[in-house]
Each structure stands twice: as C-alpha cells, then as structure tokens.
Amino acid sequence: MTTTNASLGNASLGDDNLANPDLAPIEAAGRTWRWYHFTALWLGMVIAVPAYVLPAGMLEQGMSAWQAVTVVLLGNLVVLVPLLLIGHAGSKYGAPFAVLVRSSFGVRGARLPALLRALVACGWYGIQTWIGGGALLALTGVILHRRLDGAPLPFLGIGIGQLIAFAVFWAAQLIFVAKGLGAIRRFETWTAPLKIVVCIALVWWALQAAGGLGPIVSAPSAFGPNGAKHGQFWGVFWPLLTAMAGYWGTLALNIPDFTRFAKTQRDQVIGQALGLPGPMALLAIVSVIVTSATVIIYGKAIWDPIELSGNIGGIGVMIGLLIITIDTVSVNIAANLVGPAYDFSALWPARISYRTGGYITAAIGALIMPWKLLASTQGYIFIWLTGYGALLGPITGIMIADYWIVRRTELAVGALYAADGEYRYYRGWNPAALVAFATPVLINLPGFLHTALPSVFSGVGAFWIAIYNYAWFIGIGLAFVLYAALMRRGSPR
Predict the structure, then answer these.
(1) For the segment 321-349, what is each residue's pLDDT rounded down to a tens digit?
(2) What angle do CA 251, 327, 245 make, to 5 degrees?
(3) Are strands 12-13 and 16-17 parallel, antiparallel or unpaired?
C-alpha cells in the first residue's frame, strides 16, 4: 500500500511488536501528495451532510444566519492551527500519528491516545455510514415509487429497510479498505470539483424556486436588543465555537496519517489552509441560503439534504441522492477510516495491518448504532462534538508541546520503534503525559456528565458546567502547559 523504510525492522517491547510495513516511515519516493491533493482531500471531507446541517443547531440556539456562518469560519480557523502544527511532524518524518505520539506518551503508553482517537473515529464512521445508507434507501425508494423504511424493530429502533440499506452501504465501503490510501486520494481528487458544482447548483435552484432569499437569511438574532435571548450571546457563542473546533478534533490528531505523504512542508500547509476554513464557511452559507428558501417553497425549513432531495422530485432527486451517496463514501473513508486503521494497527502491529484495522473500524462503527447519536441536535453538538473534544483536546496539546517545545521538532525516528530507546520512559509509559492528559479530562468530566445525563447528575455546580463549555480549549491549553512544565523539570529521556 505504501513505500516504507524497512530498515527499522520489527523492534519489540516485551511480546508486542512496534513496527510493521504500514507503520514504518514513508520514503521520499512515496511522498507524492502536492498541495492540490490536500485541498481536494479537505474539500471532499468538508462538503458533507453533518457539516451541512451544523448551522441548523446554531440557529436553534438563537443565532442569526450570518452569526452561524461566522462561528463556522472562526472554529475552523482555530482548528487549522493544530492541524498544521501536528501535520508538520508527519511531513518531516513520514510516520503516522500512532507512531509519532510515542515520543510524548511512550512506546507503550501511545496505545492509550491511539485507542481513544480510534474509538471516536469509529463513532463518526458509523454516523456517516448511517447517512449514506439513508441516501441509498431514499434513492431506491424513488426508483420503486414507494417508501422502504419499514416498521421500527425492537431494541434497534429503526425499520428493516433502514437496517438493510445501512448494511449494504457499510459493506460497499469495504472496497476502499482493501484498495488503500492511493484509491482514496484519487477518489477525492475527482469528486471534489463535482461537489463544488453541486453546491452552486443547489443555491441557483433555491434562489430561482423561491424568487430570492428566504426568511431564515433575513431573520434577526435572538440575542439582539428586542430578542428572546438579549444579552446572552457570549454564553452561547463559546460552547458553539468549542463544538465547531472539536468537529475536526479527530483530524487534528491523525493529520500526520496524510501529511506523511506530502512532497514538501509547503504542500501540506498551503493545501490545508486552502481546503478547510474557507470551504467550511462557504458550505454553511450554501446551507443557510438553501434552507431559507425551503421555507418559502415548502412552508418549512428542511435542513436534511436527503429529505430535500426527496421533495425536489424528478431527475433532480435521482442526481441529488446519487451525489450524496458518493459524497458520503469519500468523506467517510478519508476522515473516519484511515486514522483508526493505523491506530488499531499500532495496538498490535505484528497481527493487525492497516487493512485489518480498517475492518475493525467498520465493525465497531456498526455496533455502536450510530442513529442514536443523531437523535437530537442537543446530543449531536453538546454531547457528541463537545464531549469527544474534551477527550481529544488534551492529547492535541501534549503532542504540540512535545514536538515544538520539548523536542524543537527533532525526533529520534529509530527510537520511536525501539523498546529500550529514548521514548521508553517508565516501562514504556510517560508519567508526565498521563498527568497532563488526565487533569483536563477530569476537570471537564462533571460538566459532560451533567450534559449527557442531566436527570442523574443534576447536582453538578454551575462552575463545572461553565468549564465544560470551553472543553476543547481548556483541554489543549491546560495539557500543553502541564506537559511542557513537567518535562522541563525532568529529562525527556
């Protein structure tokens, strides 16, 4: 699948191997990704159903359309910083996230962040598979001129038709597990321009059908002088910004899985800067304009593009649903399968290859019943997005501090694969990383429990709830400072 440096051999820690061909550094001949490959990759991941519906949750909280777009832009500008900082290590050393994180957590301790990041990605993989299965089911229903959902099944809570569509879409994606990253890069490069055309066509259709912009675009903010939430703007702004930054929190960690293929540092920096913040904001604008027009056209706001395709009718619905289906495949494989596939491989390199890790990801993504994660906007934004941001933010802060402050971007690559090298620490674990990780996680835990289970944890104080609103930022900042301070007191070795 990749061009690797086999000279590292299979260093081992106890009975566990630390290297396999998928985890070894990429040689110069295998570093072929240019800036436009990274831009296309991000365009492919950005233009997706979950990102399209994000403004809906922000409008529900009282924001105006343009305030929601601003939050989306700011959140992605914020998360671009760790993407570029952590991506630098992948481009410089050609190693994936699961290996690079050994320099901070230790050769054995690195399994903890790798596992946590992988499990979050499994959740996203399941969510996107559910969305893709829904598009496939709707497309089949249009062809057969009937609804195919079926009555809800016991325990699962979804119809037999929905379950079959989910299973079919889940199985179809396994083709890309077998084909590897080369197929993903080519797929994203070809589909990215198509997605831009679709967005333009959607806006054109909406403006033509509605005769202009709809009421959502012109609706004032609820935080204005006469609004229902006057004076409460900042109390809503920061939690939403935290959730928006956390949206790409998984990619901020495993971006080396892609930048390791970059031809130069310049390619990964330019490609990511062009591909993420601007397109995310533009997609939010498309979402707001199109949904605003649906109020005029259909008498209600339709945020779900799959439901919208069903309302358009004719050849439009066929094309729309087909594009959504293709789009979901490209997003899901690139954003939610590559990273955990490497992470699971790093847990047991001798037995788990990249391909096997991909199969594990797909299996867990199905078992978690992802439709339950999307049951409400509250659950999607404040429990799912903010919750895993609280978990992954500290790992991000530790990696940045280790690479830029402690190591000054200089890593001993061979030691990343050696049981008794520089990154052994204490029996393979770095106590400084564990303390820096656990502290912000524990601080954010009361707020998360109150948000996820308010009836059970109703007694959580206002202070802890407020802290949770800044979970991702607190996680990164506090872990960064703690780790740098603890490593300064002791030897990095």
Answers:
(1) 667 677 677 777 777 887 788 888 888 88
(2) 30
(3) antiparallel
218 C-beta neighbours (distance < 10 Å), count: 11
User: In angstroms, rounded to a whole number, what is the distance separating the alpha carbons of residues 403 and 418?
Assistant: 18
Q: What's the confidence (pLDDT) of residue 458?
A: 85
pTM of the predicted model, to two decimals?
Answer: 0.82
Contact status, residue 342 vs residue 96, Cβ threshold 8 Å: yes
Answer whether 430's CB lies under 8 Å from 419's CB.
no
The whole-angstrom separation of Cα 15 and Cα 21 is 18
What values do phi and psi take at 256, rounded to 5?
Answer: -60, -25
- pLDDT tens-digit map of 141-200: 877 777 788 888 888 888 899 999 999 989 888 876 666 555 556 666 666 677 777 788
Q: 312-347 in b/e burial notation, b at 16+ Cβ within 10 A? A: beeeebeebbebbbbbbbbbbbbbbbbbbbbbbbbb
Report the alpha-carbon angle 155-160-165, nearest 5: 115
